[in-house]
Amino acid sequence: MGKKGVLLINLGTPDSPAVSDVRKYLNEFLMDPRVIDVNPVLRTFLVKGIIVPFRSPKSAKLYKEIWSDKTGSPLLHYSLLQRSLLQESLGDDYQVELAMRYQSPSIESALTKLKDALVDSIKVIPMFPQYASASTGSVYEKVMDIIGKWPTSPNISIENSFHDNELMIETFADNAKKYNPETYDHILFSFHGLPQRQLIKADHTHNHCLKSADCCQTLTDANKFCYSAQSHHTAQLIAGKLNIPKEKYTICFQSRLGSDPWVQPYTSEVVNQLAKEGKKRLLVFCPAFVADCLETVYEVTVEYHEEFKAAGGEHVQLVESLNDSPKWIAALKQMAVK
Asked: What is the largest CA-CA distance in the chain?
């Protein structure tokens, strides 16, 4: 029998912090109809006419701040480590490949490697703990579009989400323990944001999403595929693991783009409000990311830290992502062999 294939897929990163490479990355990312889910003509106008021309030079400067001369993009660096460590853990009966939904290495090139290796099956693991159409859903569509054109196909399975994976929860909790969470004034669980309209589209009942202020607080059959509800569940599990009382933490959402309402509360507003309330030290988790990246290394540790200080706070401390933690690699192994 042949090997079993495993494909890890993260979001993506520019090939370099040069404006041209950042522009290329943003164009591919934001033109995905699942990411900006509006009329195609409007999406093209917004992305190519407004967002990318103005955002590319600004984003390039930010990428330069986090780019390493030795390892390049932190997202790609840790993703490659995860692939290598998972391959080592699984052994010769498996072939592990890495792809990015946008840019390099491409999903098509990774799938081709697995096909050429004559694998019996392919387990696809989108590296997004919480399901969203704009992330995991986009990976589903891309993978099936490519494989659907093959004359033959091995067995395919795709991990839907792993927001409650025990080893993942433990890894985030372990990463936080060295900072002594009990010594901080408040703790944030900051997830990547989504437009509210995408949450509403995910409500198959048409009678739950945003119908009440607490619709995401508890995971139920009605919201089990809701990104926000899964995010709340992840945060609650990490808080429970660390015995953090409800009154001492806030679940919020970062990286808003555009003027439409996104999932709330917004991290930036929470940070400013906590400073005004006299909080001095914040500990921040980003449990939507399995590897440190621009949104964690820069947005939290630089931008939110500066906002917090300007409003009267003193320090914002990021809890590192899963990165190359052995326990996280064990979680990936569980998913790969399941």
From this structure: 63
Residue 11 backbone zone (phi > 0: left; psi -120 to 50: alpha; other: beta):
alpha
Map out the domains of the chain with their CATH numbers. Answer: 4-162+326-337 (3.40.50.1400), 166-318 (3.40.50.1400)
Minimal CA–CA distance to 228: which of 206, 212, 248, 251?
251
Q: Distances from the Cα of 244 to the Cαs of 172, 194, 268, 277, in angstroms? A: 13, 26, 22, 20
In the block, residue with structure tokens 């096909």: 115
Instruction: Using the structure block, give the residue that is written with the tokens 């395919």.
Output: 156
Q: Along the 338 residues of the chain, how does pLDDT read in single tens digits? A: 789 999 999 999 999 999 999 999 999 999 999 999 999 999 999 999 999 999 999 999 999 999 999 999 999 999 999 999 999 999 999 999 999 999 999 999 999 999 999 999 999 999 999 999 999 999 999 999 999 999 999 999 999 999 999 999 999 999 999 999 999 999 999 999 999 999 999 999 988 998 898 999 999 999 999 999 999 999 999 999 999 999 999 999 999 988 899 999 999 999 999 999 999 999 999 999 999 999 999 999 999 999 999 999 999 999 999 999 999 999 999 999 98
Q: CA 182, CA 202: separation in Å to the nearest integer?
A: 36
pTM for the full predicted model:
0.96
Cα separation, 114 vs 109, in Å, equals: 9
SS3 per-residue string spanning 131-146: CCHHHHHHHHHHHHHH
